[in-house]
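User: Please predict the structure of the protein below. I'd like the answer in structure-token form so I can feed it into my own downstream comparison script.

Assistant: Understood. Taking the following sequence of 338 residues as input:
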Amino acid sequence: MKISAGKQKGLQAVSDKRGVIGAAAMDQRGSLQSAIAKEKGIDKKAVTREMMSEFKEAVVRVLTPHASAILLDPEFGLNAAKQRAKNAGLLLAYEKSGYDNTQPGRLPDLLDNYSVRRLVAAGADCVKILLYYTPFDPAPVNDIKHAWVERIGAECVAADVPFFLEFVTYEEGLDEKGIEFARKKPDCVSKSMEEFSKPQYAVDIMKVEVPVTLAFVKGARSCKGESAYSREEAKDHFRRAASVAKKPFIYLSAGVSNDTFNESLELAAEAGTNFSGVLCGRDTWKEGIPVYAKQGVKALEDWLSNQGVKNIGNVNERLKAAKPWFAFYGAASASALS
């Protein structure tokens, strides 16, 4: 396995000294606007660009000293990017917030005024896109999505910048937090990881969900009632998903609580999966939204300095079980792949 100089440089920029990715995510847009509006008791349209930027800047200032990188969006996050700690690399999101809900398939779209080249010019060490995906959608829907990812992969190859693909699984008509989807989730995650490991997509790092819903793992701290799988079955699902990956992968938090995400990482470690880190956001800072909405940015910074730092520290502690991204290819260092 060989990796180009630009991709190697970008991956090293967002990794820690071990080669593990301990990145924070702050690229939320529509969902963040809605959350701030709800806590302030105002219309979503009343949440200004200045509010969005102010919130992101506070998160970046306080949390990036404890992260290997920060993921931001170029719409509201470029001022925040300038305030990150020197140790933290920068990933920029390329997709529009949300998806097309005028037709089936949750089809994605890219930001109108950006290209990979422009994201790199804005300071990106790596480029990330989010795709809602299920291998069980109709073939014409997934054909559109596959071609879309191929185009972005080719664009990243041309710019010699790493491509992070985040895919979030779903099934139309099902509650993704419910037990019925929980039973289907292992297959959705593993088949998605298998698909996007294929070389035509030119993905460098897959940002994936854990393949089980912790709330339905029997005996888990996060399980409060009925279960979909035993702890051993859950670990088997982790192993199966990891076994089909042909590219390094990191876990996303999917908006769960800090405690639940930590338990997910503990289960991944017990299963012996070769994950290369995390890229997580809301589990670290989402409880600061009502603080900001009701008390302002100084109160948010105080909350982040206390609970936010504790939250990211909890995740970092679980990253001791993670493997360097270059170790996925059997290399002892990133330079061994050049």
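That's the full token string. The longest helix spans residues 297-318.
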